[in-house]
């Protein structure tokens, strides 16, 4: 699609949303941002960064800004399954609220067990009412793995005796879009790790509708809000990779974006934590970094108010945005080396060890080339929609 045609299409989409009434009596998002001391210049700078993240041209920045301002027009239902609430906390716990977290605070969140005041039968009534009232219109966000089948009773919710699996199925049936927030909801997470006593599964396993996975333990707040903005802008699903992750966020490996990549290319590795290489910021592959096998944009977004991320802090990536990472990526302080690495194309050798890598040899023995090349060539049929 031509850029001009896409701009026109997104503009029409936002114009139709603008005609919808706000779903509650909260202040508008622009007024809230102003009240919190965020001026228009800062907001547009943020919108420009989100535009780049969504792989849109710079002149689309006003559209992204408008989408953020209209995010209170669409109802959202957020369900908690078997999880630690870390994904919600990544949005809520901050010393200085970011634009991302403020937008999340003021969207029309019709149901969220951690945030709402209601409890017991009132909470159950709120969920049922929201599903019925906004049938076919709401966005469903689910956090946590889902105990399923004969083990579904491990997650029984409220006085009506429904299981988490039943709630997830019912909410998924009438959702306009479904987002699995975090690795537990996307792939089962630690709940689904061997021996998986509760039979926990990913959200996609309990519904036949398409689920957009936003994995991470926890995912970046920008990946959560960015996925929401994409749906507001397009009204359709984004281009997805082999594991239904948005390509704009999960299209490249940690290894591709790593600030220590130059050390890797030069064959400079940390041999053990605390050694001279660690102090000099050498590559962490030998002490277990799973960056060559992990697709995410952590180095761009960072954590702790966007100040740092695990590799910058001195610990290797543990592969938390990959399926079954608890079982396939451990031990976390040891390299994958020549163990088999399971991809959508079957088991592939995890290629050469770091000991064989030196200057000029990367094209032959680079870590992750086999897995990366295979996954990169996987063509999702949805990628041509945009």
Automatic annotation (TrEMBL):
Residues covered by the NADH:ubiquinone oxidoreductase-like 20kDa subunit domain: 84-230
A Pfam family per the record: NiFe_hyd_SSU_C
InterPro entries in UniProt: Cytochrome-c3_hydrogenase_C (IPR027394), NADH_UbQ_OxRdtase-like_20kDa (IPR006137), NiFe-Hase_small_C_sf (IPR037148), NiFe_Hase_small_N_sf (IPR037024), NiFe_hydrogenase_ssu (IPR001821), TAT_signal (IPR006311), TAT_signal_bac_arc (IPR019546)
Residues that, per the record, bind [4Fe-4S] cluster 2: 255, 258, 283, 289
Compartments where located: Cell envelope
Annotated binding of [3Fe-4S] cluster, by residue: 298, 317, 320
GO cellular component terms given for this protein: [Ni-Fe] hydrogenase complex; cell envelope; ferredoxin hydrogenase complex; membrane
PROSITE patterns attached to this UniProt entry: TAT
Molecular function per GO: 3 iron, 4 sulfur cluster binding; 4 iron, 4 sulfur cluster binding; electron transfer activity; ferredoxin hydrogenase activity; metal ion binding
Domain of life: Bacteria
Keyword Protease: no
Keyword hit for Iron-sulfur: yes
Gene Ontology biological-process annotations: anaerobic respiration
NCBIfam families recorded: hydA
Annotated family: Belongs to the [NiFe]/[NiFeSe] hydrogenase small subunit family.
Name assigned to this protein: Ni/Fe hydrogenase
Naturally occurring in which organism (per UniProt): Malaciobacter mytili LMG 24559
Source lineage: Bacteria, Pseudomonadati, Campylobacterota, Epsilonproteobacteria, Campylobacterales
């Amino acid at each position: 699609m031509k850029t001009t045609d896409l701009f026109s299409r997104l503009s029409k989409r936002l114009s139709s949303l603008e005609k919808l009434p706000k779903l509650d009596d909260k202040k508008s998002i622009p007024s809230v941002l102003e009240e919190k001391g965020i001026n228009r210049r800062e907001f547009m700078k943020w919108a420009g960064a989100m535009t780049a993240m969504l792989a849109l041209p710079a002149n689309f920045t006003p559209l992204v800004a408008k989408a953020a301002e209209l995010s209170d027009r669409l109802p959202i239902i957020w369900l908690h399954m078997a999880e630690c609430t870390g994904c919600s906390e990544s949005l809520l716990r901050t010393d200085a609220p970011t634009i991302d977290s403020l937008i999340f605070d003021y969207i029309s969140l019709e149901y969220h067990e951690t945030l709402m005041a209601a409890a017991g039968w009132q909470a159950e009534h709120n969920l049922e009412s929201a599903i019925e009232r906004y049938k076919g219109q709401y966005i469903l966000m689910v956090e946590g793995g889902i105990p399923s089948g004969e083990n579904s009773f491990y997650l029984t919710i409220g006085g009506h005796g429904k299981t988490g699996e039943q709630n997830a199925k019912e909410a998924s049936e009438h959702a306009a879009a479904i987002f699995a927030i975090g690795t537990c909801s996307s792939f089962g997470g630690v709940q689904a790790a061997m021996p998986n006593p509760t039979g926990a599964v990913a959200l996609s396993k309990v519904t036949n509708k398409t689920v957009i996975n936003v994995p991470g333990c926890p995912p970046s707040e920008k990946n959560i809000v960015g996925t929401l903005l994409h749906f507001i802008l397009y009204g359709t699903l984004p281009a997805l990779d082999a594991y239904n992750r948005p390509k704009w966020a999960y299209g490249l490996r940690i290894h591709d974006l790593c600030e220590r990549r130059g050390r890797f290319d030069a064959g400079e590795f940390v041999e053990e934590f605390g050694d001279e290489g660690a102090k000099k910021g050498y590559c962490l592959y030998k002490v277990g970094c799973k960056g060559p096998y992990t697709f995410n944009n952590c180095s761009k977004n960072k954590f702790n108010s966007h100040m740092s991320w695990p590799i910058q802090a001195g610990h290797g990536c543990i592969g938390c945005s990959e399926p079954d990472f608890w079982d396939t990526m451990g031990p976390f302080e040891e390299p994958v080396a020549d163990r088999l690495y399971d991809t959508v194309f079957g088991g592939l050798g995890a290629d050469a060890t770091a000991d064989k890598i030196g200057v000029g040899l990367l094209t032959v023995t680079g870590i992750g080339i086999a897995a990366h090349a295979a996954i990169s060539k996987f063509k999702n049929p949805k990628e041509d929609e945009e």
